[in-house]
């Protein structure tokens, strides 16, 4: 148990100041202790001082809600970067170029499903003060824990592999940098991003990653101003339907690439690091309710942005690249965008891809660290981990492996990891002994299990298609 280091019971101003400063500076452990003390003292003050209720102090409830909202925004935007990674770029462009607006509805459904899953993960970290890997590590015996870690680590490394290669491709497209050197540069830049989190704290890291997310959005949305989509066809694309087996397999790839296992593990770690106090739970009560409500808004805003970027990719391909047979690779798609919409849009597209690769590989390394910490119960320096996971990508680039093929295969590996993260997440967030007063309601649990079943089924279709050669 961390020692209590809060302000005096009557010192409400200092408590609120610590809430506003939360994450700005100081070691993670100090921020955790300060946050726990602030929550405890605020609750104690509200519960024990005469006239401290929201009814007696005009506007105090609104003030607390605003503080909770300001404190909660950020983690979901870090997680959202995984939804606009190079794998999503390839799938969305292929869908738009091959089937026009037909599969727009798939991205809408995938974004909504991902939002629910991410909120469940975030709420788990807030309520329990632990990440999903930590909770599983405490419940599994050693053989099962190590086996679970092996598959989770494989998923994290496959993700990191794809992101490094995506960044290398972007550097090649923008500056004609050789792929191996581009992969090395991507790894070095991601080290710099990780240093922001390691030395400056989580809030600065969240701001940097959110800035990258905005660059990604500008890069992929800008083309729509040059080649605007047909509103009637966009509306028609919102009606669920397919056009042959090829569209079914592509829809499976789009959905499977959207809900990614590593970012589900990650979100619980992000909220734990932001709001947790060691192994202490967030106490049940109005403060937790406000925090969960603000977190829900954080997830909604972040997923709306990520969903809009993904849909923009598909609409751009549908309006400008439909029917072309040279967009089955990212390099081909970039060349087609430049030829069709102009060099300027092509440069913005490349910058969006570069930001996608750099930000998502940093986030993936963060997720891998959280997985290892929770399941192996030990920490490895992020820089050491970055070097270890960078090596396979550089080897594949050096031997001349096709980047797009590597991206596709990495998505297949990710699909195998989905059941292992969704099933435990749904069970834990539906367990009253784990979530106490914040257990998921029955409609949410039913919807969550339906989403899990649909994702697993569609990914099984994708895997069969890839193996059979029909995907």
TrEMBL record:
Indicate, by first and last residue, each region the UniProt record lists as having compositional bias (Basic and acidic residues): 13-47
Recorded protein name is Mn(2+) uptake NRAMP transporter MntH
Source species: Nakamurella flava
The membrane topology noted for this protein in its Swiss-Prot or TrEMBL record is: Multi-pass membrane protein
Q: Which domain of life is it from?
A: Bacteria
Membrane spanning stretches? 104-127, 179-196, 208-227, 247-266, 299-321, 341-371, 383-401, 407-426, 446-467
Picking any one GO molecular function of the record gives:
cadmium ion transmembrane transporter activity
| Cellular component GO terms held in the UniProt record | plasma membrane
Q: Which keywords, in A-to-Z order, does the entry hold?
A: Membrane, Transmembrane, Transmembrane helix, Transport
UniProt record, GO biological process: iron ion transmembrane transport
Designated gene of the protein: mntH
Compartments where located? Membrane
| Entry-linked PANTHER family | NATURAL RESISTANCE-ASSOCIATED MACROPHAGE PROTEIN 2 (PTHR11706:SF33), SOLUTE CARRIER PROTEIN FAMILY 11 MEMBER (PTHR11706)
Q: What is its main location?
A: membrane
InterPro entries according to UniProt = NRAMP_fam
Q: Does the keyword Membrane apply?
A: yes
For the region Disordered, give the residue spans: 1-57
